[in-house]
Amino acid sequence: MNKTWVNRISGLYLGDQVQMHNGVASGMNQKHAATQLTVQFDRVVGNSEADPKHHGGLDRVLHHFPREHYGQYRRWDLMSSFKDAPSMGENISTVGVNESLVNIGDIVQIGDVTLQVTQPRSPCFKLNVQFDQPKFALAMQESRMCGWFYRVLSEGVIRPSDSICLIERKTDISIAKAMQIYFLPEFDAEQYQTLLACEGLAQSWVESLQRRLAQQSIEDWAMRLYGKAS
User: Which intervals hold domain MOSC (predicted)?
Assistant: First the structure.
């Protein structure tokens, strides 16, 4: 399989500064346009995360976010002011490929870098702060317009002129479907097993689903979505 998702990247972004915003440490507003991304197995050179526990790591080296989603969030009045890439903290911005077209485990070629799709972005309360909307993270969770993460299979350089090509499909579960399953309001062991069977799924999601199955319950999402316990 060799299918071109995007002929040309809309933007590449990175940043290693952390900013305090309403008492919350975040690197989202510190991302800036880059002429290229130097991609290593464990990081993008010059890029870092404010919260390494929940962001970054081998399964989340690069964050890809569809640029057209900004327009939809604006139409939903979920942005208090005009925002565009890279306000989500993304490294790669494109037009033309979205969560319904990208599957867990997809092997992707960008320039001389080979990547694998690992998980959707799990929206957290920092998005509420970023966009001054108390339920922005919940809206992203429910709409599944979240973007996705990659692990690195071969290192190299990504440039704006590069195309993005799907070279191998490992599963039939899209990013949108993975979001739907993972954030089901009710416990569903069968659906969790379906997602767990996806080759390439991020280890943190694997462990979370296994924990749910062991406990026969869903964890409380209030702290992640709102920054406070329910």
Answer: 37-167
